[in-house]
Amino acid sequence: MPTLAMMPQPLKEFLNVDECGVTDEGCAALASALRSNPSHLRKLNLTGNELGASGLNLLSDGLKNPHCKLEELWLDWCGVTDEGCAALASALRSNPSHLKKLHLSGNNLGDSGVSLLSDGLKDSHCKLETLWLYNCGVTDEGCAALASALRSNPSHLRYLDLSGNKLGDSGLNLLSDLLKDPHCNLEIQK
Q1: To bridge 161 with a disulfide, which of 33, 70, 73, 189 should be the other Cys (CB 3.0-4.6 Å)?
Q2: DSSP summary character for residue 43
Q3: What SMART domains has UniProt attached to this entry (predicted)?
């Protein structure tokens, strides 16, 4: 079986393994590749794999490598929960400057997961530009956490997809107030 290091250059930049039954063992291999040869992989699509908390912890450890240059990560419909959000937030704080797009749609994050992610977004070095949270169980409480994070670090996030969530008037008012900030460059999909 070929390893990531043996793949031709274009394949090293984008790895698409959506709906491939990736488990913790696969996440361990990907994390090892991110640690041992971190400068090539730019895009990783793991959509539709049931990664679980330990798989995301392993993957997040790879993302923490200061030489990791991963810019886009798809984790849509992967069973991401609070523990996975905590691992991702830790990775955003440890190596905040490269990840630009994060897809988390279709996971049961809820407000607590979004609050954990928001802790990573608060870091002034975080350069995340696009965050997909479609159908993730976010309510007003999650909107408050996101609004707080984006007030702390308003200049980088450009696109936030919150469609398919249970946003109330309070959450929408917080996000609307945020959009009035002249430093905020955000477009929100509700």
Answers
A1: 189
A2: E
A3: LRR_RI
Record the tokens describing residue 20, joined without a space: 């491939």
Quickly list DSSP for 44-105: EE-TT---HHHHHHHHHHHHTSTT----EEE-TTS---HHHHHHHHHHHHHSTTT--EEE-T
- Domain 12-189, classified CATH 3.80.10.10, yes or no: yes
Q: How far apart are CA 63 and CA 60, in angstroms?
A: 5
Instruction: Count Cα atoms within 13 angstroms, Cβ side, for 37.
Output: 13
Q: Which of 61, 117, 130, 131 is nearest to 89 (CA)?
A: 117
Q: What's this model's pTM, rounded to 2 decimal places?
A: 0.88
Enumerate the domain spans of the chain.
12-189
In angstroms, rounded to a whole number, what is the distance separating the alpha carbons of residues 55 and 29?
A: 10
